[in-house]
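Sequence and structure are no longer studied apart. As an example, we show below a sequence and the tokens encoding its fold:
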Amino acid sequence: MKIDPQIKKPQAFVLCPTRELAVQVAEEIRKLAKYMSDIKVLPVYGGQEIVRQIKSLKTGVQIIVGTPGRVMDHMRRKTVKFDNINMVILDEADEMLDMGFREDMETILTETPQDRQTVMFSATMPKAIMDIARNFQKDARVIKVVRKELTVSNIEQFYYEVRPKNKTEVLCRLIDIYNPRLSVVFCNTKRQVDELISELKGRGYFADGIHGDMKQQQRDRVMDDFRSGNVDILIATDVAARGIDVDDVDCDILELKKKSNQLVVLDVQLLSWLARLEAYLNNFLFDYRNKVNHLILNHRILIRWHQCDHMQVHLVYNDGNHS
């Protein structure tokens, strides 16, 4: 990335699917540029006053990190100009497509100079990603990062086969047995997040959650409570959880129902990242043995299978054999 600190105009921008991820990426870029005091980085996202962002842009910003919707807002207001943009980065491009941002992504790319460099990071390569690469990149190179193992050695994983009506009860029993200091529960939908928060609070647990329908101020408050320990169970949709950076998470619980195998693998990668400080972490997987078998056979992940209704325990090895 070539940034001229003497030019007080945007020269690069990063598109991210969520507000939390945009803030995290901006912070990491600031760390990389900490000895380059003349380079300014600004995250722009919905939920924050746009007037404040406009004032910051007027002071001279070289790198913008934002969500597609808010970047489009600035384009309509003509508060962001792309004349000097020489690099565009699409972070988690497949997630932005799944969230319905394809039209915004293509509009933004169309408005940038054609001699820019375009970089896309994507965990999967669906046809829509290849279409964008074909239309907006020149002589694109595909770089694949292949890892033999998706998890680190200090993650112990369990798969529980549970009837839907018993999930909350099993979840509470697991929390009571293992007593994690901090835990994260992933749900498929915003409604499930709200329902589970209500159920856990009704049982006396200190739980709260985040999802895309919440205002940024509410999400920030929940995350502050979780980091400080006032909330010890965080419930989130997997999309809203992207960009969360919290140390010392002891336990993560994933809901596999209605998820593709690719999304399951993404969640396991997220858990590996959360364990980077070598905190012991238990990963409890709910539902659907076929998806778990996919992880075992195709990605060499060791998972222990518990069939809760009959209290039978099966150890599942990398070769898929049960004992």
Observations:
- Residues 261-267, 275-281, 309-323 have pLDDT under 50 and may be disordered.
- Residues 9 and 83 are 9 Å apart (CA to CA).
- The longest strand covers residues 155-161.
- The first helix runs from residue 19 to 32.
